[in-house]
Amino acid sequence: MDAVLGALTAAGSGVIAGSMLLAGAVIAWFVKVPSGVVAGVMAFGAGVLISALAYELVAEAHADGGLWPTVLGFALGALIYVGAGWLIDARARRSGDADTPGGTALLVGALVDGIPESIVLGTSVAATGGLSLPIVIAIAISNLPEGLSSTDGMKEAGRSARYVFGVWSSVVAVSALAALLGYLVLRDAPVELIAFITTIAAGGILAMVCNTMIPAAFARDHRITGLLATLGFLTAFTISHLG
Known about the structure:
The protein is mostly helical. It has helices spanning about 5-30, 35-65, 65-95, 105-130, 135-155, 160-185, 190-220, 225-240. The two termini are about 20 Å apart. It is built from eight helices and no strands. The chain is globular, with a radius of gyration of 17 Å.
């Protein structure tokens, strides 16, 4: 693949990933989405994310890079997300600000898993010469609920449209830059380093799902949360294996 075309493809993959977060934000801001629908989307998205981290991230990282880079990256990703969430909660308590239901926490999760995820997209372009359709579809399915749920929470907390869309536009730009850097800087990197970066995303995803998405979905509509999460898992699992 021509270097310029490869760089553009890598950056484009990051834009695709980030744009689904922005699309979710647009839906949540301009459409009055019923609380039960938001809960269902969050539950479904949680299942998709768990499947993606298990089969697309952790399993492949372990197969390519070995046990210890996988373990260390996974643990670091969880620590980064939990630590960032703790800092946000402490700041909110000091200022008296409420962020229901965890909108900022979901935004942090989008960054913690989205940046390494975009880097991985860039390196995959270098390795395969193009976009991996199953990975792109899985990212799209999982990112849309993150953007929807996070924006719904920020909207309830009284954030302005300028703030919300400024934040998500920045996330799209950061995703594109991370994918481009993944292509340019890490295309010849050791597989152990790629595994480490990949599982940072996976650890952040799992911590975010457990701390924010599933509890928020269950609090809104606990009747079918487990069923929808299972359906999301099976959807992403099927896409992965069809690919």
